[in-house]
Write a structure and sequence with these properties.
5 strands, five-stranded mixed β-sheet, alpha+beta, single chain
Length: 389
Amino acid sequence: MLRRLPFTVLAGALLIFNLPFYVVTAEFGVLAVPAAVLLTGPVLMAWYRPVPAWMAMVAAMPLITGLGMALHAPVVPQPWLLDQTLAQLPVMYVLALSSARRVTIVAVVVTFAVGIAMTVPQSMAPDRLSRGLLAWTLALLLAVVLGHARRMRRLATLRVADELGRRRILEERARIARELHDVVAHHMSVIAVQAASAPYRIGGGVSEEVAEEFAAINAAARESLRDMRHLLGALRGSDDEPGTAPQPGLKDLGALTESVRRAGVPVQLTVSGPAPSLSPVESVTVYRIVQEALSNVVRHAPGARTTVSVRVGADEVSLAVDNEPAPRASGTAQPGSRLGLIGMRERVEVLGGDLTAAATDAGGFAVRARLPRRAADRFTGSPQGGGAG
């Protein structure tokens, strides 16, 4: 949340500011250097260890004041003096920014208790003491309030981003379920029709037991269709209209890459293997992965030269989407949430495959996916490479 350089610069500036004070005004002599380090060290530590930095700050307060009293210094350093307050403010701010509320409250109470306790052995004028304590208290409270307010704002932003991410993941999963429903429902419908018509299509008729078996298959297929429709209705929601457009597939990759070319991304598409034998589940999965990968190129590397390769084999389907670094003149890439990669990985895992997505040594990005052909048969209910119809 914070950069280290401002803390380093502030600690150096406080060290330079306090050394003359302890040497000339407080007359600490050779002890001026360790006193200045004790005071400014917690500022540098607060960047990466807020609670230990606060502990060091609280411990340094009585040490420096006690050292001034032991040396009978002309000016005994008090916690509310400007040199010490400037070192305490960033420590208290970072503590409130990075710690829970109860930790911050305990730290504030302990800090004030130590500061007030240090005034007991000193004989100070009441008006001077009250003014010093009041200014010191207000300054520390202001730093704590600002740090805590920024912490609450950051936590609220993270919660909103987390909820948005969960919502997008659920929407992607619902879309995957709808696409699988469309594919599976087609084959289940074919099974139901074939089971209902089989006794009339088989020459010579069938026995009563066989007819009852076909009727049971037909009833099971229809019941499965009803269950899938109910599940799909729960996933879709009451406000969503059911889609009637056919699911895209491997045959639509040409139109997809052409639309990306019109968006300013030069894309080269290569499809090899017996594409017509690809099952509907595999076909729509390949299309969605390529679609999301190209969308990422358009968003994050506009204008980058991209290649899409799909290879359909007897045992597996493999695809690769590689893009070069974006040219300088293409504009600024948009930040991403990586939710698209999550959606692609979930699609591949549904089919029992694997997916890798990582930056290349040349500065581009590469997406690799592998889909076992045997995995699709569990969803289609058909022999490998063919359809139930």
